[in-house]
Specification:
With 261 residues, the protein is of the alpha/beta class. It has helices spanning 9-26, 41-52, 80-87, 109-122, 159-165, 184-188, 203-211, 244-253; strands spanning 2-6, 31-34, 62-65, 67-69, 99-100, 128-131, 153-156, 178-181, 192-197, 229-234. The chain has one domain (2-255): Rossmann fold (3-Layer(aba) Sandwich). The structure holds 2-amino-2-deoxy-6-O-phosphono-alpha-D-glucopyranose.
Length: 261
């Protein structure tokens, strides 16, 4: 795992966007795994700008999002499909038919989950998966105790997640209690992972995910099992990390990061 600590959240988002853009420039038909949440909004704003100024081309890119609320369709402003369309897909030159999220309106949960896994495999697997982390340590909606081998399925959200996300719903109680999510195993199958964590509120959970112990109580800690992970944080989110000095030293001295300095 490589850990990069940026001065502030804007720089962290910019670096994340640059890594995604570089991956697309190296492989124009990249299969990109995407995440939602407030943390990702500045990343998508950067990618929109880069696309408009010709620095990255989404024409041949395929995307798969981590998760979607059960019961919410694309026109619902709280659906992740709506979030993705309005923050990214409607503003870049991606082909809509190449963008995928689980169908929140599917009635047969198992069938939809299996179909999603099939589509990911059929596309050749995910090349780069972007991840955030929830306050309870979840990646996607893999709540505590999700198996590290889990595949796409429906999960019941924890009260903590409910509290974190219900602020976006009107009334808050209208937030669904179930969501489709890629499994931890699905995420670990991707070829590369880039996780972005920003803000003081995430400092404790960031430390648990990055520096361990490895536990399904913090599904974000599963990234320690992956061989190609970069975690990008701002100073606030990195404030409790024990090995901070080493991460900064490694970032400065590893030639592979030179183009990002
Ligand atoms: C939701 C998503 C996660 C995301 C998390 C963090 O729960 N399912 O994929 O990482 O939100 O959200 P925020 O960036 O708003 O803190």
């Amino acid at each position: 795992m490589e850990v990069i600590i940026c001065e502030n959240s804007k720089k962290a988002a910019r670096l994340t966007a640059k890594m995604i853009a570089n991956a697309i420039n190296e492989k124009p038909n990249l299969v990109l795994g995407l995440a939602t949440g407030a943390t990702m909004e500045p990343v998508y704003a950067e990618l929109v700008q880069m696309n408009c100024s010709g620095k990255v081309d989404f024409k041949d890119v395929t995307t798969f999002n981590l998760d979607e609320y059960v019961g919410l369709g694309p026109n619902n402003k709280n659906s992740y499909r709506y979030y993705m369309d309005s923050n990214l897909f409607d503003k870049i030159n991606i082909k809509k038919e190449n963008t995928h999220l689980p169908n929140g309106l599917a009635l047969d949960y198992n069938e939809e989950a299996d179909k999603y896994e099939f589509m990911i495999n059929n596309a050749g697997g995910i090349d780069l998966q972007l991840l955030g982390i929830g306050n309870d340590g979840h990646i996607g909606f893999n709540e505590p105790m999700s198996s590290f081998a889990s595949k796409t399925r429906v999960k019941v959200l924890t009260p903590e997640t409910y509290e974190q996300n219900c602020i976006y719903f009107n009334p808050p109680e209208s937030m669904p209690k179930l969501a489709f999510t890629m499994g931890v195993g699905t995420i670990l199958n991707s070829k590369q992972i880039v996780m972005l964590i920003t803000g003081k509120k995430k400092a404790n959970i960031a430390t648990q995910a990055i520096e361990g112990p490895l536990t399904s109580m913090v599904t974000g800690s599963a990234i320690q099992l992956h061989q190609n992970v970069t975690v990008i944080l701002d100073e606030d989110a990195a404030s409790n990390l024990k090995m901070k000095d080493y991460y900064n030293f490694a970032f400065k001295n590893n030639p592979k990061w030179q183009r990002y300095q």
